[in-house]
Amino acid sequence: MRLPIRLNPTAVPHALRRLLAPVSASGDPSRLTFLADQYKRVPPEEQAAIAAEYSMCISALKFGKTFKTTAAARLDRSAAAFESHLVGNDHVVVDLGASDGSTSVDLFERIRPHVQRFIAADLNDSILICSHRNGLAFFSPAGQPIVEVTPRLLWYADVAGANPIYRGLVSRRVVRFPCSGEQTRIRLLNPRFLDLTARHPNVAFLRHDMFEPLPVTATAVRVSNLLNLSYFSAAEIERALGSICANLAESGLLLISRDTGTEEHGTLFRRSGGRLVILETIGAGSEVEPIASSLRL
Known about the structure:
Elements: E1 5-7, H1 11-26, H2 34-41, H3 44-58, E2 62-63, E3 66-67, H4 76-84, E4 91-96, H5 102-111, E5 115-122, E6 126-132, E7 135-139, E8 145-149, E9 153-156, H6 164-175, E10 184-187, H7 191-199, E11 203-207, E12 218-224, H8 234-246, E13 248-259, E14 264-272, E15 275-282, H9 289-293
Parallel strand pairs: 4-5, 4-12, 5-11, 12-13
Antiparallel strand pairs: 1-9, 2-3, 6-7, 6-10, 7-8, 8-9, 13-14, 14-15
C-alpha cells in the first residue's frame, strides 16, 4: 500500500459512528447488532440506505493485501453472464470473496430459480474494535492490527510498498495500537444479507480461505474483486485456482471478474476434461485469464 495514511472522508467516520457508537457508549454486547436491528425496524423504503451505509463502513477496512470494498448492484454485468449459462434448478453456487454479502444478495436474487444451495464465502467475517487515543483501533479476528480511525485520518497497518518515510511513521504508530479497554467483536455481514438468510434457508455464509479446498462440491463459483495481480502473485493465483477447482464439479462454471468502479471485466469458464475452458468474456476479460486457461486440474 503506497500511501498507508488517508484523509478520513466525512461519510466514513459518520458510518463508523452509526455502527459503533451504540456499542462503545454502553459496552453492551447485545447492541453489536445495532444496524441489523435498525434495518428490521425501519420501513422497507429506508432499508436500502442503511444497508448501503453499512457497506460504506466495511469498504474502509483492509485485511492483509485486500480491501473489503463492497456495494450493492456493482456486478450486474458479470452476474447476467453467469445466469445465462445456468441450466436447471439444482445448482450449488458459491460466491467467493463475498465481503459483507451485498453483492451475494444481488446474485442470488438474479439466479434464484436455478439454485438448490447458495453459499456466500469470505475469510474475514468479523473484526475486533476498541477505543484507542482519540479514535478506534481495528484488529483482525487473530488480533493483527488493521487500521486506526481518527477524526481526520485513517492509519492503515499495511505498509508494504509504502514510501520509507510513511512506512516508518505508520509502523511506529501501529506498533503502539494497544487498546484502552476491552475489545468488541462485530460480525461483518450486511443486514440485507442477514435478512436474505432468514427468508431463504438454502442461503448461508461460510468463513473460508480460498487457498483451501471448498467444503462442498459446487456446480458454479463466482470470484469477484479478489483474484487479481494487485493482490496476489501469479503463483498465489494459480494455487488459489487449484484449491477452488478441487471441488468444482465437472462441467461446473467458474466466473472470475473485477469491477473498476465504472466497468466490469471478467471471464466465465467451464470445467471440462481437466481444463478451464472459456465460455464468455465480459469487457476486456479477467487479467488472470491466461493463468486459469493454462491450469491443469
